[in-house]
Amino acid sequence: MTTPNSPQRASQAAESDRGLHVVPDAPAPAAPPEVKILNLVQGTIGRNPAVIKAARGMSHFGEHSLGWIGIAAVGALVDKPRRREWAGVAVGAFGAHAASVVIKRVVRRPRPNDPSVQVNVSTPSKLSFPSSHATSTTAAAVLLGRLTGLPLPAVLVPPMLLSRVVLGVHYPSDVLAGSALGAASAAVVLAAEKRLAK
């Protein structure tokens, strides 16, 4: 930005007097819409240290779907009559995670790297689309909800999706696509269980 008395402004005025066309300074490019959403989230709830701490905890829990596999393993040990259904939770969560990793390596979208975005947790890869945490969490929530009769997708999925944006490691479209993939993965597991039950 130039001030009224700056050397750049004086030089532009001199060139104008000589009949030369002066091109003004180009404005800074606008941030992409998804970066603006990241900035909004991080500038509001993402400023709360407790929120960041909780988001990091969710990140560690959902890494490689291990937290969901652990819950399924405990369920299978405690609830032996429905051991197969609990195994389906583990298979669905890990299968959804694996599918997301394959898609990431095909799409190869890099994680957010805008200077305005603060990255608040480490990640095992630099690839972003889709979010593996969103994928495995949605699959696990759908399958656990079906198994327990509780509205777990509504309780578990939104916080996980939001946490990935708070941490600055995913764009909104990454988490939405991951959630859709997770729901599809859960549907495949439920369909397989129905066939096996016949």
* Spatial gap, N to C terminus: 73 Å
Tell me roughly what share of residues is in helical segments: 55-70%
Assign an overall shape: elongated
What value does the Rg take, in angstroms?
24 Å
Report the average pLDDT across residues: 89
Total E-strand runs: 0
Relative strand content: under 5%
The SSE string, one letter per element, is HHHHHHHH
What characterizes the major β-sheet? none
Structural class: mainly alpha
**Count of helical segments?**
8
Low-confidence blocks of residues: none
Description:
67% of the residues lie in helices and 0% in strands. By secondary structure, the protein is mostly helical. Helix 3 (49-62) packs across helix 7, helix 5 (83-107) runs antiparallel to helix 6 (132-148) and helix 6 packs antiparallel against helix 7 (152-166). The termini are far apart. 35% of the residues are buried. The model has no long low-confidence stretch (mean pLDDT 89).
List the helices and strands and how they pair.
Blueprint: H1 7-17, H2 33-43, H3 49-62, H4 66-78, H5 83-107, H6 132-148, H7 152-166, H8 172-197
Helix pairs in contact: 3-7, 4-5, 5-6, 5-8, 6-7, 6-8, 7-8
